[in-house]
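Milestone 3.1: sequence recovery, worked example.
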């Protein structure tokens, strides 16, 4: 029932925006000074935690400073069909993509939004799988899992704002952990160290799970403080199958992280 209600919210948002299956951009502006945060959900249609959290931002929260831009339904056709990707995994199409790909226009459009100079940070919401833990507790609670984690791919980033990814992720995880129903839902910071791996494997084809990021020369997408929030996980960004905005989702939402 909850999934059906979230899907209805997404359908209504799309209908209002033009009655097609292109993704929608909702700009929630407080009218007060502050940073602009871009929240993206739905890159993979079989991860309802990501697009549900993004949709709830639009329908249930008020911005009190700065602005929050929300794309709740990036891969809307795949969401409708509950598919990882009707035309393949869109989350693997941000480096190189044939212009003939059916999702080429959508990928280019979201890239333009990500690199908009007004955007200070990007939160990419997903569903997780299992429970991430820095130590192995069980097969479902171990370093190889992604759920209940705030994911970063490097500790710091050369950016004007929000370059201190490690500190921000730790703050978000600590805030979420103040409101747990069950200790197993505790958030942890997961640093994939992808930038370091890329530097070590310049000639290789390094894949970083669940992060839309181009390889060079399109470094513009990495300019801002990009993280994934996981209820599953979030790249900044809960139990399994979430990447949650918990530390951010408050009735009076502030965009100043």
């Amino acid at each position: 029932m909850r999934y059906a209600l979230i899907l209805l919210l997404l359908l209504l948002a799309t209908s209002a925006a033009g009655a097609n299956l292109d993704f929608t951009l909702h700009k929630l502006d407080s009218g007060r000074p502050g940073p602009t945060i871009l929240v993206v959900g739905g890159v993979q249609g079989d991860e309802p935690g990501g697009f549900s959290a993004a949709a709830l931002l639009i329908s249930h929260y008020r911005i009190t400073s700065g602005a929050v831009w929300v794309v709740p339904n990036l891969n809307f056709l795949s969401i409708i069909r509950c598919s990882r990707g009707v035309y393949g995994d869109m989350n693997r199409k941000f480096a190189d993509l044939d212009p003939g790909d059916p999702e080429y226009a959508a990928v280019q459009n979201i890239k333009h939004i990500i690199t908009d100079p007004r955007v200070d940070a990007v939160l990419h919401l997903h569903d997780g799988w299992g429970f991430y833990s820095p130590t192995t507790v069980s097969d479902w609670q171990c370093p190889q899992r992604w759920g209940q984690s705030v994911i970063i791919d490097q500790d710091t980033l050369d950016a004007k704002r929000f370059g201190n990814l490690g500190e921000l992720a730790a703050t978000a995880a600590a805030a979420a952990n103040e409101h747990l129903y069950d200790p197993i839902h505790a958030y942890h910071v997961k640093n994939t160290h992808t930038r370091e791996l890329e530097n070590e494997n310049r000639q290789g084809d390094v894949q970083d799970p669940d992060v839309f990021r181009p390889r060079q020369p399109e470094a513009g997408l990495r300019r801002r403080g990009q993280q994934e929030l996981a209820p599953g996980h979030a790249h900044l960004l809960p139990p399994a199958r979430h990447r949650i905005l918990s530390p951010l989702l408050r009735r009076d939402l502030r965009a100043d992280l």
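The chain has one domain: 2-12+22-254. The two ends are 32 Å apart (CA to CA).
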